[in-house]
UniProtKB/TrEMBL annotation:
Pfam families: AAA (PF00004), AAA_assoc_2 (PF16193), MgsA_C (PF12002). Residues 50-166 form the AAA+ ATPase domain. This is Replication-associated recombination protein A. SMART domains: AAA. Belongs to the AAA ATPase family. RarA/MGS1/WRNIP1 subfamily. InterPro entries: AAA+_ATPase (IPR003593), AAA_assoc_2 (IPR032423), AAA_ATPase_RarA/MGS1/WRNIP1 (IPR051314), ATPase_AAA_core (IPR003959), MgsA_C (IPR021886). Keywords: ATP-binding, Nucleotide-binding. The keyword Mitochondrion does not apply.
């Protein structure tokens, strides 16, 4: 159960590149600047000799295991790793007993690192509580799932929750360049062409471990690593896609226009292209949410619900699973009846406001709840719609300057067709037509 980071284990077993390149100090950690700056809670905890309890929550490859190891290394504490995938209550208790013996015999504290702690059931998590409460170990749990849903409250309330973010492209690039030159990595024995480096960055998708795994696979094939070598090593073609250049704008434009044109197959192609190129899934989700109101609108109001749910799902679980949620929303948007009446309506209303067509709020609609409002005549003559048949009563709602303006002009498409008939009847009634 002792960690593979122990020196004996390091000498006995060749380590993967991603393990060899793990930082040894907080200053060597790439990314997560919001957690590692001077005065941050993690810094203060590392600099303290007191036991601690942490949860590290973030996507794969963002450095959860790395931070746990660095905490152990910097504080000179024994490091014991338990995987929630394969360990049971017996393993947890054995690790805790070992930590108690070490503490009693030598005074040395133990970092108990539980990877994928969200996979532990309640009984397994309960087994950790005595060690956390009695400070027998420094407990660090790593999870890719929202701990508020997957971790028992007593354990979470006794721990500091730190949220890790996906690495930026610049962060991943630094990780790769360091691995190429550092003696713990490739030690300069291989060269990486600039285009190949960028392909590795795109393939990583913010996951440092994945980038190093792919680099190591490519280095096994050739000392001069080109795009072709990377493609062969990871069996994934390079998608020619510059997230800051023309391809970015051309592909997202084609994506939107394919959904607008109701071609679900074409829209899915462009979605796949963006995902494989490493486009930020949150950017894709935002564009789908906009589309749901801009191009579908009231023709299918449930489309916006699907789009927002997909955006939230992507935020919660990330890739690769989030691609299913995105595809779900894309298919719904593409096949939904289309209407741009919503965007035209707000555009026309904003246009009039910007031209100065504002006017005074009618007196009977003004707020009459504050002291003195009645003396000003606010609310006088207001008719409460619920007091009338069908919940409708004829009175002026718009300022005089825009009275009679028609902003929302619904189409006959999908569910908006029903709304169009209802809105026509309501509008005629309210305006006395």
């Amino acid at each position: 159960m002792e960690s593979l980071f122990d020196s004996a284990a390091e000498d006995a077993t060749p380590q993967p590149l991603a393990v060899r390149m793990r930082p040894r100090t907080l200053d060597e950690v790439i990314g997560q600047r919001h957690l590692l700056g001077q005065g941050t809670p993690l810094r203060r905890l590392v600099e303290s000799e007191a036991p601690m309890s942490l949860f590290l929550w973030g996507p794969p490859g963002t450095g959860k295991t790395t931070l746990a190891y660095v905490v152990s290394n910097v504080t000179k504490r024994r490091f014991v790793e338990v995987s929630a995938v394969s360990a049971g209550v017996k393993d947890v208790r054995a690790a805790i007993d070992g930590a108690k013996r070490e503490l009693g015999m030598t005074g040395r504290q133990t970092v108990l690192f539980v990877d994928e702690v969200h996979r532990f059931n309640k009984a397994q998590q309960d087994a950790l509580l005595p060690a956390v409460e009695n400070r027998w170990v420094t407990f660090i749990g790593a999870t890719t799932e929202n701990p508020f849903f997957s971790v028992i409250s007593p354990l979470l309330s006794r721990s500091l929750l730190l949220t890790l973010e996906s690495l930026s492209d610049d962060d991943v690039r630094v990780v790769l360049e360091r691995a190429v030159s550092d003696e713990r990595g490739l030690g300069g024995r291989a060269t990486v062409a600039p285009e190949a480096l960028e392909h590795l960055v795109r393939l990583a998708g913010g996951d440092a471990r994945r980038s190093l795994t792919y680099l190591e696979a490519a280095a096994l094939l050739a000392d001069d690593i080109t795009v072709e070598v990377v493609e062969k090593a990871v069996d994934k073609a390079a998608v020619r896609y510059d997230r800051q250049g023309d391809q970015h704008y051309d592909v997202i434009s084609a994506f939107i226009k394919s959904m607008r044109g109701s071609d679900a197959d074409a829209a899915l192609h462009y979605l796949a292209r963006m995902i494989e190129a490493g486009e930020d899934p949150r950017f894709i989700a935002r564009r789908i949410v906009i589309f749901a109101s801009e191009d579908v609108g009231m023709a299918d109001p449930t489309c916006l619900q699907t789009a927002v749910a997909a955006a939230q799902a992507v935020q919660l679980i990330g890739l690769p699973e989030g691609q299913i949620n995105l595809a779900h929303a894309v298919i719904h948007c593409a096949l939904a009846p289309k209407s741009n009446a919503v965007v035209k309506a707000i555009g026309a209303a904003i246009g009039d406001v910007r031209r100065g067509l504002i006017g005074q709020v009618p007196g009977h609609l003004r707020d009459a709840h504050y002291p003195g409002a009645a003396k000003l005549g606010h609310g006088d003559g207001y008719k409460y719609p619920h007091d009338f048949e069908h919940g409708l009563v004829r009175q002026d709602y718009a300022p005089e300057q825009v009275r009679g303006k028609r902003y929302y002009e619904p189409t006959k498409h999908g569910g908006e067709g029903v709304l169009a008939e209802r809105w026509a009847r309501i509008r005629d009634f309210l305006r006395g037509s």
